[in-house]
Protein: Alcohol dehydrogenase
Amino acid sequence: MKLLRLVAVLAVLCVIAAGGLLAWGWLAPTGPEPEPPFAGLPADMPAGMSRGEYLAKAADCVACHTAKGGEPYAGGLPFHLPFGTIYATNLTPDDETGIGALSADDFVRAVREGVGSQGHLYPAMPYTSYAKLSRDDVLVIRDFLMTLTPVHAVTPKSDLDFPFDQRWGMAFWNAAFFREERFRPDPGASQQVNRGEYLATALGHCGECHTPRNIGFAMQSRDYLAGTEVEGWKAYNTTSDTTYGVGGWTDAQLKGYLWRGHAPGRSSAAGPMAEVVEYSLQNLSESDIDALVAYMRKVEPATGEDNVAVNIDPAAVAASTPLRSGGDNPAYLRGERLFQGDCAGCHQYNGVGRQTDFAALSGSRAVNDPSGTALVQVLLNGTEITVQGRHQFMPGFARSYSNADVAAVANYVLSHFGDTEGKVDAGQVETARSGQAALR
Structure:
């Protein structure tokens, strides 16, 4: 299957790239570079933060360029792709292993065109979104990075299957799928909506995780923000669709989720999204979060594939008290017993949760998704987030639960809190446990 997929990808790339090369003159940017009039900083800029640091946080640079246990921005974080593994580079100003020797023009080219000192970058570095950034914003991010303490950290060598290990081949991918185009404000939209679009599409590069990919691993524009799976976690639909997206959320819920990681009655950020909130979104100004909300209201609804409809009032939850289940189902007896012993104390049977808002389960897409993808990840690995100095933590059960145990709890939770029939089995849990996450 892997070989057939590789052959199919190469065939499609060859055909599309031929047409892409012919159209390159039309695709390449022409004329003077437009500068968004609102690019830069909000009026309510957080105190004690430079413009460059603010924009670096908005772009979430540190999340990808920091290895587990490593120095911030020093790189080394692995990205497991369907055809191998690549590693994030060192963004500290070290002359030998970082960006210290890069000129301003070289840095801008790497960020917006995906061409670095060693050739073409792989689009795990979201230059396909950063291309929209103004040159000035890229340069002030560079200015901030140059103030960091240099860290001598050699980036591990990529381990990719042939022919993906040939960087020059990315020129063909770029010709087929990448248009280097700066952000252009919509004259028919408000400045707030335009600001939100710039934050979401350029700096925040939301589409890179929340948009399904085509056979060439490029974003499918027709399904923009319609949701997909990233390294074993669900990046859910964030379009204005009222059934599958966030169109049914209130502004307060959407704002709370983006800014603080929790939307009352809806969801709490977990896994990679919790990192986005912790390292990036919570650092934005309130006006910029409001701008993101305003923009997300304007995103065209899309359904994509494998989307999740949320039941916000499941019968079992409505019949339950905090400490007593009102929806016993013999089919899920094993899962219920495990939930009772290890989970109910924090999450409670009525879905409200205790001690912290993050323990609430009612309305969560994770407990309404029949695939149980995100739920299995949380059960195995736990999740944590620090927001406004307060650390929220749920332990994982990978060591204490068997694969069958995890599947049993997941299916019980899906039945009780989502009124849906879970499809989780021990094989799926083993795949997630081993870190494969169905990527190969």
